[in-house]
Amino acid sequence: MKEIIAIIRYTFKENIRNKTFYVLLLFTIILLFISTLLSVLGGGESIRILYDFGLVIIEFFALLIIVFSGVNLLLEEMDSKALYLILTRPIPKEYYLLGRYFGLLYSVILSMIFMSIIHIILLLYTGWEPNFSYFVSIFFSGLKITIIGALAVFFSLFSTSRVSALVFTLFIWLLGHFNQEIKFLIDKISSTILQIVMRLLYYIIPNLQFFNFRELSDSGIVFSKIILNVLIYGISYSCICIIFSILLFKYKEF
Amino acid sequence: MQNFRLKNLDMIILLTVSIMLVNSLVILNKNFNYPFKLKKIVMSKYAILDLSSIIFGIRKFGADIAWIQLLQYYGTEEDELTGHSINKGHTHHHCGLEYGSGKYYDFLKLSKRIINLDPYFYNAYLYSSACLAWNLNRADEGLKILDEAINNKPDYWQFYLYKQAIIYKKLDKYREMVYTLEKVVKNTNCPTIIKVILANTYKKMGEFERSLSLWLEIYKSGDIEYNEYAKREINYLRNVKKKL
Amino acid sequence: MIVLKTNNLTKIYRKRHLGKLYANLAVNNINLEVKENEIYGLIGLNGSGKTTTIKLILGLLFPTSGEIFVFGQKMPNRNMLSKIGYLPETPYFQRYLTGKEILNFYCQLTKIEFADIRIKEVTEIVQLGENINKRINEYSKGMLQRLAIAQSLLHNPSLLIFDEPVSGLDPVGIREIRNFIKLMKSQGKTIFFSSHLISEVEKICDRVGILHKGELKRVIDHKEWELKSLEEIFLETIEK
Predict the structure, then answer these.
(1) Which ranges of C110-229 does DSSP label H, i.e. alpha helix?
(2) What is the pLDDT of residue B95?
(3) Within a 10 A sphere around the Cβ of A253, how many other Cβ atoms?
(4) Are A68 and A148 in contact, with CB atoms under 8 Å apart?
């Protein structure tokens, strides 16, 4: 357990000292400030626009970092052979993978929290009345990022190249949001084979709409009824991706 | 032997997590009612933008952009939009109806864009229907918007109130319309445009005191869009009051 | 006592490309033994299988057939890794961390108590001095090598496995590595290293194994190359 924590700290330090990470973080903060200008164009809905835009920017920043870093998390260390010095130590391989994954997640979630604080300050300045929905939205965005991070790590070990891992992960992100529409279209398809394929896709691809509280908060969905299952779904999906990643990693040669 | 036991443990963990996943998915499929429906793209010009909002899971943000575009459109001089003077008296057909003014032809489509992306953007319904009914004198289109609003959110009482006000307007029952709008403006979330409409209606009916009081309220609210307009109206009404 | 032993160790790299299977016999039936407290050099041309052999011993690769024993225990055995200190051919560390942070990290991985004291000790052995507090992106090749050696010593291993330890170093650096290896031997450690620099191997090894095209052609004791140069013996062996 202590080894996992050591690797988490190591990964976290690596991320926060990485210039690319900082540049992206800075860019996102600048975008948050620019969004206040955009919100002025919204007339009487300036607070809503600032609120929505901010949440979207925070989620997209986290997505970019988690996808690019998640795909490179292990591949970079494998290419540079930095991995040799860790795997030739008496720690189980899965500890290394878990430590790297949670370390990356920790960096991204902390950045999301930091950006949320800036966002909240901007919102309060414009007269926003704080509500619990904001924090729930950020929490579920974080859970979405957890799933995508796990997928990025899995694809980095499963596919033969960085580019394909990146493309697969981003594609799943898109399909995950389109999942409900796929469900709707299944009934409209006449071909049985295509229906089966689509249905399979529907169940395998993570349904990211479950975590899109930011979009669904005004729709009247009673989240308290489903929140526990959403949490279980998110955590178990991530776990399965990580378990498969561990299995791939255990039998990988370096 | 030790390795064999560990592999068994891996399988047990995988099985447990899979069961949890499947179980939660089954429950969510039963209880999660996705509130958005796939609708036709209203304006092909913005098809890619709207589709992107859906695919990226940022419908609300897409609706916000559409909202800004509507305000930009409505805030632009008609000449710039159409490329010809409105004084020429064009007649245009929209949804089978004939309008003499021909102003802001795409207002309804732009409004529909917003509500297709985010059917729970309540203020968009209220603003669009009010603009269509009172400013653009297209009450039927305003009612269309509200009918869709009621269909999406039947328990939002303000939609019924607005609908009532528009019907009264259509039937030239101004007293009843004013009475309905007075109920609406009491609500803290009432869009400023409604207050503006009511204030103008008071002015039209000769009730300058009430009109002035409402304009002062609008000015104090600090809504940048109506600041200058409110200042002008306040000055005018104060002058009228002095003369009286 | 035999510290490291391989029995018929074989490794075939298999790769599938466009439906066709390609097989490359990297290491073939290697039987080697490394005795306690000896310096054993594994020499061979580039591509002869030296690094593959080392990776097989450390568990970075899985043998196609054969067995590996470290301190009498069959590998892979995670506990045995705590008795091995490894130096790769081109050591790489995270650029944005300092040398001290890197060593601290490895201490945590190997559960070393009083890490600060141990880091200070190994830093003195490899003569890194104040450079330990600098970030890795400021390190020279020589400093990186010292740091790499330092990390291999942290957990006080009994067996040191070095892959081309003098690769890319200047003559001063090479001499320092040589002296360091002799120092480790004097401390009772066993050193197993690979190299293609026969002149260096000649100066310090007790025994040498000649690897050619994946096969261990010959094992020579240092007494043999006192009579005839190691280079001659090497060339003779590979030309057979």
Answers:
(1) 115-126, 141-153, 171-186, 198-204, 224-227
(2) 32
(3) 11
(4) no
Nearest-angstrom CA–CA distance, B175 and B177: 5
Q: What are phi and psi of C92, to 5 degrees?
A: -130, 135
Residue C173 C-alpha, separation from nearest chain A C-alpha, in angstroms: 22
Q: Which amino acid is at B132?
A: L
Q: Pick the residue with more confidence: A84 or C15?
A: A84
What backbone torsions phi and psi does residue B16 show, to the nearest 5 degrees? -60, -50
In angstroms, the CA A44 to CA B132 distance is 17
Task: Look at residues C184, C186, C206, C205 and name the one whose alpha carbon lies nearest to residue C195.
Answer: C205
Secondary structure (3-state) at A98:
helix
Nearest Cα residue in chain C from A14 = C96
At residue C191, the 3 state secondary structure works out as strand
Contacts (Cβ under 8 Å, ≥6 apart) of C177: C145, C149, C165, C166, C169
Min distance A120 CA to chain C CA atoms (Å): 32
What's the pLDDT tens digit per position in A5-24? 999 999 999 888 888 888 88
Q: Give dist(CA C13, CA C22) in Å, integer.
A: 8
Alpha carbons A21 and C2: distance in angstroms, whole number: 50
The answer to which of A54-58, C8-12, C87-91 has the lowest mean pLDDT is: C87-91
The amino acid at residue C139 is Y
Tokens of C109: 């991985």
Q: Within 13 Å of residue B73, how many CA atoms lie on the same side as its CB?
A: 18
What residues of chain B, 208 to 237, have a C-beta less than 8 Å from chain A?
223-225
The H or E element containing residue B156 is none
C96 closest CB neighbour out of A6, A18, A254 = A18
**b/e string for C82-116 if b means 16 or more Cβ within 10 A?**
bbbbbbbbebbbbebbbbbbbbbbbbbbbebeebe
Residue C236, classed as helix, strand or coil, is: helix
**For chain B, which residues make up each domain, given as ranges?**
191-244
Cβ pair B193, B170 in contact under 8 A:
no
Q: Are B136 and B107 in contact (CB under 8 A)?
A: yes
Residues of B in contact with A207 (CB under 8 A): 25, 28
